[in-house]
Amino acid sequence: MSISDLQDLKQLSQGARLAAILQLLEERTFWPVSELADRFEVSEETIRRDARQLERSGVVQKVHGGLSATNNKIEAPYRLRLRENAEAKQRIAQTAATLVTEGMTLLLDSGTTCHWLARSLASVRNLTILTNSVEIAHEVLGNPGHRLLLASGQINTTHHAAFGPEAKSFCQRFAPDLTVLSMGAVDAERGFLDFDPDEAAFKQSLLPQARRVVVLADHTKFAKSGFIQVASFADVQDLVTDLDPPRSAVDAASQSGTKVHVAEAAVAVRPRSRAGLV
């Protein structure tokens, strides 16, 4: 969907406006501040503040009179993480999408598996999606019929997401139907863990308001040792992964009432024999 298809640009929140600016920069690599101010019906100073925030994330650079896309728009480390175990993450996302029904409100964290989930939800109508991730917000803007709520604040340059007090405060106003979290590690005794203190603290802040917590974790996460506990198995209603977890994790999930969903294996397509070609 082109940004030109969006209506009521002047009614966008700051977070949604940031995501919309990024989409404009996909279509054209330079935009004058004055033109953006007219398009969004805000002051030029507001656009300059937006530019300063986007510049901290490394995806936009301020140039004389306007904003320009950088050459490393979503390159490493975010793009590398998005491609890492991509096939497994896509299968996890497709399985998680079966938990979503029309009209739901979802909170998606900044994990790359959540990015794939956002892409998998294109056919589900009338969703409200809340996220702290600029990249996921950009993905949601391409899905007609989805309402986007983007938490703002200082953008973490590694994750392209906001984790600070503004983002926490914004997200804590909502009680979404599903709170979907990616995790850096899963441990039978310690539960769900992560590595980045700011990211872990943000995820922890979401638990009290959550109606149903869904964790997305590919099989490699069961072999990793995170050092910051985000949640116990008792805090999580659904765990979606791509391979059968270790028995210890299955037992911990069963004892806490956490349902484990294992994504179906990808179907291999056998190449046609050259002898069978006409």
Please, could you describe this protein's structure?
- There is one protein chain.
- The chain has helices spanning 14-27, 33-40, 44-56, 78-83, 86-97, 112-120, 134-141, 165-171, 197-206, 247-256; strands at residues 30-32, 60-63, 66-69, 105-108, 128-131, 147-150, 155-156, 161-162, 178-182, 185-187, 191-194, 213-216, 228-231, 238-241, 259-262.
- It is 35% helix and 20% strand.
- It has 10 helices and 15 strands.
- The protein starts with 13 loop residues before the first helix and ends in a 16-residue tail after the last strand.
- Helix 1 (14-27) crosses helix 7 (134-141) and helix 6 packs parallel to helix 7.
- The radius of gyration is 20 Å and the shape is elongated.
Helix content: 25-40%
Radius of gyration: 20 Å
Mean pLDDT: 85
Q: Please summarize the sheet with the most strands.
A: 7 strands, parallel
Class by alpha and beta content = alpha/beta
Head-to-tail CA distance between termini: 40 Å
> Stretches where pLDDT falls below 50 for ≥5 residues?
1-7, 72-76, 267-278
Number of helices: 10
| DSSP strand count | 15
Element order: H for helix, E for strand? HEHHEEHHEHEHEEEHEEEHEEEHE
Widest sheet: strand ordering: 6-5-4-9-12-14-15
| Shape summary | elongated
- The fraction of residues assigned to DSSP E strands is 15-25%
